[in-house]
Specification:
Its EC number is 3.1.-.-. The chain is α+β, with helices and mostly antiparallel strands. It contains 31 helices and 29 strands. An eight-stranded mixed β-sheet has the order 1-2-4-3-5-6-7-8, sandwiched between helices. The chain has a five-stranded mixed β-sheet with strand order 9-11-17-13-14. Helix 6 links the parallel strand 5 and strand 6. Helix 1 runs antiparallel to helix 17, helix 1 crosses helix 18 and helix 17 runs antiparallel to helix 30. The longest helix has 45 residues. The radius of gyration is 37 Å and the shape is globular. It starts with a helix and ends in a 16-residue tail after the last helix.
């Protein structure tokens, strides 16, 4: 019964693993529609000749200058006229220098077209934490015209896979440093040539280069900043696109992870230079800013959590922003689409052009001005408006704070006057046309004596379409711009939101669907304190001669109690909605802003929201009953109600906007339940802007396919680390069984035992979690959301068990199939060798036997482990670590195959002897074969077979049969093979990159760290392959217990588990290599004692079965 339960537990874990894997693959393979517009260009790439550093110049990489235009140009003449702002593009993993063409082409068009027209929306700036009160920003405004163009350069890195190998990443950094110097030297050379020819100097020589890096190219840009040969102040601005900053996206190779840690550590020290003199030797980064742009939740290759700058760049020197929250972009896009998505590259181009000082034509030297340009051009004002940021900015408070900027004086309406005023008596105000009227709203009467919030949505443009004012008392002026200084204009508090295309009115007087909102304003009770009235002024309808009037105009505002608009969706309800969708009914006159609070982060459990209009105050459509019945009520309501908008906010990735959200799968690009997650990342807030005139049926359902895909992407590193922990725990069970003089269990049996509840599953599964949380407390780090963190970590541990069980089953099936085939062929050999056609084969075997009988071959055959170690160490140290580990795997596989063949041969021989014995007894006693044997006869059979098997055992004192001994050898070696197979797969991406370089004619020795860890893994595989070695692997008694190999495996498993929790699975090599080097030291000590005539007898009894 116990065995059946263990099988059931493993089967359940395997079923869970396959279910999540299939759902995740289906989700990840589905096509994605990102809404991006393609960018078109006429590219020309001008090669920059190598000069200066001979070592770098003679390399295989290249440097190019981009030129936009279809006309043929003279390269030398074009280089001679270089006078713009140098920008260097660095491609990412496997990328091409030609990927610069989209952003470079749009930069050229933006420079020729000039800055975009101002919309007078609220602009987000720097927060107080980022230095908003800095004196350099006093009176600072964005340039009204572009002073200088951008000269785009790009490095050709041969499409190498820099995300897979740390050495390639370092070589790319070397060349980028050379390219920066080469660019600056080219500008000086071009300037000198123009002066010699008598041409007037157009502008100042650039002293720095702006770096723009995609994917791993962004990390290369940061790595170049700390390079010892980089000139001082050669780079002061870095913009990265979908770049992993925290750790590699594929954190498998140890040297790659170590290089990331080194670069990030140097950056932290670089920003500390300004506050201490002890680290004056470190690169000074005090004037360097970094802006990281993420592609959002559709970027499967690099997770948003890796793209943040937390703990690397202080808020005063950079920030992170997702493309979903960028002004004029509002889209999530794939990893490569971020390079050509027109909405994004246009915004990036205009941002970089705004960095140029109109006086000097070079980027602003002041760090805060450059950072302010990025903040104003990229950030949206929505988070500030709804106080989602940590420090909300409220400029209105009883008129005591500095006034908001008003509309420009040159923007006036028709006759600068308004028709008769309208006094609103209800809490909801609606505008359906540009009527040139002003609407008065009594804050005390309609706003519950100033305790209510006010939200206003419209598709009218600020200033030119609508204006809003706060009045301390009723005014009499009909002017759109009151002269009373106590009246504060709050039009600039309108923030832009994305909207779909407005409906077009084909004929005057025809009815169209309601226009989607493009702006929203929110006033809190604190904002309205000290004021009595709120006015909404609507501009008169413009008249366009010879054309139909513009599409429908709309504006809706409402006073409401914020508590009435709150809805909490509990975790159980969300989980159950995956099987049965849940409905929330919104009656008419509901709050215009509905705040949905999800107890489970939507980055972990994406949820589909569906809004269906069920009523809009229309009792009858005016149509005949037979026609009205055919008309869908929701379509009829679309004529009156504006399309809903969903605004999701996540503390990690920021804002996510879903316009026209009648049916959307709302997901946020968050990384919840990680050890480094912030405490508030366990929940997600979604704000729905819905028309209060309509009633809705809100349906939400969790998407299991999307959740599975997100789970695999977010926690793959954690699953890898847990997998190593599972195998270590299985090896611990095997070694413990050997020490207790019990049969060595198979890897699968050991895994089944470790899944037993409550012991040993509870201590093995939960102790690493508690240790990780304890380390966070010691390091004064914030704790993650405990419930989601523990739940996700246990699921990852179970999935690792499932993956391990599947891998063990598959490998065991292959071994048994190969062994059965081998035994079958060997058993038939005696019949085949008498045939004439096998004479040549017998001659070849005889010749081979003579070769293997040589003295050198006898020595090698006598010590196969020495040969394995020498070959594996040589390949791993001088060629590639993956080759060394493959050699070790081959040795494991041969040993497993031989042991299993011996086990099967002995088992078949035992079975044959039983049959012969039974046949002999049947013949002598002349009894039927159907007649059962007596107990004494069965005992005689078993005793004779056991005597035969024991006679073939290596030890005369063995209490185990030869077949059982060989099976135990197979079980133990099989566990080591699974462990080292996964270690070899960790080097697979690096090996692919190495093969690519070999194909292009390049080769270099592996990094010392990779080679050292590879040697340690090889030593572990060679020296610990025999279970008897555990008797040598002991230390003096510590804390009342002798530390043996099973305890060492336990510590290694816990460390691997914690490495996975820290998203650093490459650290699992450290415990494997440490055990290998420790085993080597103990082996050398044993040999030294043996040479000195000392005999080391274990303090335990001699094991009963020798191998």
């Amino acid at each position: 019964m116990q065995g059946l339960r263990a099988k059931f537990r493993v089967a359940a874990v395997v079923a869970l693993t396959l279910w999540i894997a299939l759902l995740g693959l289906y989700s990840l393979l589905k096509p994605i529609s990102n809404g991006c517009v393609m960018t078109y260009m006429y590219p020309t790439y001008i090669p920059i000749s190598a000069a200066g550093d001979a070592a770098a110049a003679s390399g295989k990489y290249g440097l190019y200058l981009y030129h936009e235009g279809w006309k043929k140009i003279d390269f030398d003449e074009h280089l001679k006229q270089l006078s713009g702002i140098p920008v260097l593009f660095i491609p990412g993993n496997g990328g091409s220098f030609k990927q610069v063409r989209s952003v470079a082409a749009e930069s050229d068009r933006a420079y020729q077209g000039g800055p975009p027209e101002s919309t007078f929306h609220h602009e987000a700036g720097l927060t107080s934490e980022e230095g908003r009160a800095d004196t350099h920003l006093a009176g600072f405004e964005l340039p009204t015209q572009y002073k200088n163009r951008l000269d785009w350069f790009a490095v050709d890195l041969e499409g190498e896979h820099s995300a897979m190998d740390g050495q390639i990443l370092e070589e790319h950094t070397e060349y980028v440093v050379y390219a920066i110097h080469r660019i600056l030297d080219q500008y000086k050379h071009s300037h000198d040539v123009r002066e010699k020819e008598g041409a007037a100097a157009s502008s100042s020589l650039p002293k720095s280069v702006i770096l723009v890096g995609h994917s791993m190219g962004g990390f290369v840009a940061r790595a170049a900043m700390i390079h010892p040969r980089l000139r001082k102040a050669a780079v002061e601005t870095i913009l990265t696109l979908s770049t992993p900053h925290q750790s590699p996206p594929v954190a498998l190779q140890p040297s790659l992870g170590h290089y990331f840690e080194h670069v990030n550590l140097e950056w932290r020290k670089g920003y500390e230079v300004q506050s201490t003199h002890a680290a004056s030797y470190v690169t000074d980064l005090s004037n360097v800013i970094v802006v990281s742009i993420s592609g959002g939740y559709n970027d499967y290759q690099v997770q948003t959590k890796l793209e943040t700058l937390d703990g690397i760049v202080p808020p005063t020197h950079g920030f992170f922003i997702s493309s979903t929250s960028m002004r004029n972009v509002w889209l999530s896009m794939e990893h490569q689409a971020i390079l050509w998505c027109n909405q994004l590259v246009v915004q990036v181009s205009q941002t970089l052009l705004n960095l140029a000082d109109t006086k000097t034509s070079v980027p602003f030297p002041e760090r805060q001005k450059r950072l302010s340009v990025f903040a104003r051009m990229l950030r949206s004002g929505i988070p500030d408006a709804f106080q989602w940021t940590s420090q909300p900015d409220s400029n209105v408070h009883g008129g005591q704070v500095a006034r908001l900027p008003g509309c420009p004086n040159n923007l006036t309406w028709k006759d600068d006057g308004l028709e008769r005023d309208l006094y609103i008596e209800t809490s909801t105000v609606t505008v359906l046309a540009m009527d040139g009227r002003r609407r008065w709203l009594d804050i005390h009467k309609l706003g519950s004596d100033g305790k209510s919030h006010f939200v206003f949505v419209t598709n009218l443009a600020p200033c030119s379409g609508a204006r809003l004012h706060l009045w301390p008392e009723k005014g009499k002026s009909n002017s759109v711009s009151p002269s009373d200084k106590r009246v504060i204009e709050i039009t600039s508090k309108l923030v832009q939101i994305p909207s779909g295309p407005a409906p077009v009115q084909m004929e005057p007087g025809s009815q169209t669907e309601q226009a989607p909102p493009s702006s929203v304003l929110r006033l809190t009770p604190e904002d309205m304190q000290g004021f009595r009235f709120l006015t909404i002024s609507i501009a008169p309808r413009p008249i366009v001669s010879g054309r139909p009037p513009p599409g429908a105009s709309m504006a809706v505002g409402q006073f409401f109690d914020a508590k009435d608009g709150e809805r909490v969706l509990s975790a159980p309800a969300l989980l159950l909605s995956a099987y049965s969708s849940k409905d929330v009914v919104l009656e008419e006159d509901h709050p215009i802003a509905l705040n949905l609070s999800f107890d489970i982060n939507l980055g972990l459990l994406p949820t589909s929201l569906s809004l269906k209009a069920t009523g809009c105050g229309i009792q009858r459509s005016g149509l005949p009953d037979e026609e009205a019945g055919d008309m869908d009520n929701s379509k009829l309501c679309k004529l009156r109600c504006f399309p809903p908008v969903a605004l999701a906010w996540d503390s990690t990735s920021g804002l996510h906007v879903f316009p026209n959200a009648y049916s959307e799968t709302v997901t946020v690009d968050s990384s919840p339940a990680l050890l480094s997650s912030s405490p508030g990342s366990g929940k997600t807030s979604v704000l729905l802007l819905v028309d209060p005139h309509c009633s809705y049926e809100l349906t939400f359902a969790a998407s299991l396919t999307s959740a599975a895909g997100k789970f695999l992407l977010l926690y793959s590193s954690q699953i890898v680390g847990s997998f190593f922990a599972v195998i270590f725990f299985a090896l611990m069970q095997q070694v413990r069984a050997w020490d207790l003089d019990l049969p060595i269990p198979s890897v699968l049996t050991a895994m089944e035992s470790n899944l037993k509840m409550p012991l040993p599953f509870a201590p093995l599964g939960f102790s690493p979690l508690l240790l990780s949380l304890f380390v966070c407390v010691l390091n004064s780090q914030p704790l993650p959301p405990l419930v989601s963190f523990i739940a996700v970590s246990i699921i990852c541990y179970l999935l690792a068990n499932g993956v391990g069980a599947i891998l063990v089953w598959m490998s065991q099936f292959l071994f048994y199939a190969a062994a059965l085939t081998h035994v079958f062929i060997k058993s038939r050999w005696q019949q085949w060798e008498t045939k004439f056609c096998f004479a040549y084969l017998r001659w070849f075997i005889t010749l081979s036997s003579g070769f293997f009988s040589l003295k050198a071959m006898r020595v090698i055959r006598g010590s196969p482990s020495v040969l394995t170690a020498l070959m594996a160490v040589t390949l791993g140290s001088f060629i590639h670590p993956a080759l060394g580990l493959l050699t070790l795997l081959l040795a494991h596989a041969i040993c497993c195959h031989n042991a299993l063949c011996s086990f099967l041969t002995a088992s078949f021989r035992s079975h044959t002897r039983k049959k012969e014995f039974l046949g002999h007894e049947d013949k002598d006693k002349e009894i039927s074969w159907q007649q059962p044997l007596s107990k004494h006869e069965v005992a005689g059979v078993n005793q004779s077979v056991l005597l035969e098997e024991n006679s073939s055992s290596d030890s005369p004192n063995s209490s185990k049969s030869f077949s059982d001994t060989q099976l135990e050898i197979f079980h133990h070696r099989h566990g080591l093979l699974i462990l080292h197979l996964m270690a070899a797969l960790m080097f697979a991406p690096s090996f692919v990159a190495w093969l690519q370089r070999i194909g292009m004619g390049g080769h270099s020795f592996p990094w010392f760290l990779d080679s050292t860890l590879c040697i340690g893994v090889i030593l572990h595989g060679v020296l610990c392959s025999n279970p008897e070695f555990s008797s040598l692997f002991s230390f003096p008694r510590m804390i009342w217990k002798e530390l043996r190999l099973d305890f060492v495996y336990l510590i290694a498993g816990i460390y691997s588990y914690m490495a996975g929790l820290g998203s650093a699975p490459y650290k699992v090599f450290y415990p494997i290599a440490s055990i290998g080097f420790l085993a080597f030291a103990l082996k050398m000590s044993q040999l030294r004692n043996k040479d000195n005539g000392e005999s080391r007898l274990g303090r335990r009894k001699k094991h009963s079965h020798r191998h």
